[in-house]
Amino acid sequence: MDFAVSKFEFYDILQTEYGFDDIISVNTLPGGYIEEETWLVCLKLNRKYVVKIIDYRFNIDHLKTILNFQNYLYSNLNYPCSLIVSTLSSKLVVQIDNDHYLFIQTFLDGHVPSLIELDESYLMKMGTLLGQWRLASRTFMSIIPSTNIEKRELTDQWWIEQFDRLSLCKHLEEINIDYLRLILFECRERLNGKIDQLEQGLIHNDFQPSNTLCTNDDRQVYVIDFGEACYAPLIVDLATTLFLLLTNGIDDDKRLNIFLVSYQNLIRLDRHEIELLDIVVRLKLTTNFIGDCANVKSKEEYDHSSWLQSCSKWIDILHQEKRNLFQTMLCNK
Prior knowledge:
Elements: H1 7-18, E1 23-28, E2 38-43, E3 47-55, H2 60-77, E4 84-85, E5 94-95, E6 100-106, H3 120-141, H4 156-166, H5 177-191, E7 200-203, E8 212-214, E9 221-223, E10 230-233, H6 235-247, H7 253-264, H8 271-294, H9 299-303, H10 306-320, H11 325-331
Antiparallel strand pairs: 1-2, 2-3, 3-6, 4-6, 5-6, 7-10, 8-9
Helix pairs in contact: 2-3, 3-7, 4-5, 5-8, 6-8, 8-10, 8-11
């Protein structure tokens, strides 16, 4: 853990900030964008906590707001997620240095569902949980200062960053940069002047099966990894989930419809959201594909990534064949 904090400093923070004086073991957990970001801390009496050490270069008030929202979900709505643990001095996050922060949450005992487990029942639960998130966001945003929240999605700066990332993909001859740029231009043109018409709020921004945990006993579904949460049009959350379902093998109309129906049982999309949903799905799919390709180092790595191959396939399908896939589903209900 020498990237941000030494082992001595790590234990010292746990003891002095959180009062963890009976630590039995500390082990890394899979997940996170960088190595040694997530840790499982075991204490006596079978108490377990997850420690996150993150490189965070945005407004710290934004991070605190996201952590407060997670606790609001957990404590006020009994939402199935972890509780952020406060320090002895009631802080939700501890600053390690200029760029690194540490926070602790309760441990959830479950597993990421396999493709076989993503049946109709699971998709119904996911749709309900995303709808509940949106309802909670409405209430939460009415009671916190708006100055604590950063807009990161679909802003002018965001668009600049998406186009700039294309230049980082030039080493991959397998992708057509001009084609991807065309999709970005088309999406921006379709969304121009319409973003402010959409309901805004806190979005999870990575709501997908791999960011849920399923318990072995009663198939309870928990939502994890709030690290991408931000302030944006709430339809972005639904669009992100839909493209992630498609690219992870949930591409049959039956399960997609079940997910949408369970979401719409709580959230009635307005006309603007229905009209723009497919274009936002295509946009989020394309920008995520570009971002991941920018980090690929070789043709071999690209060819062996089933995720990138799936994204490429669905970019073509949605651009050429099924431009209004989800609008059609919603209008047929």
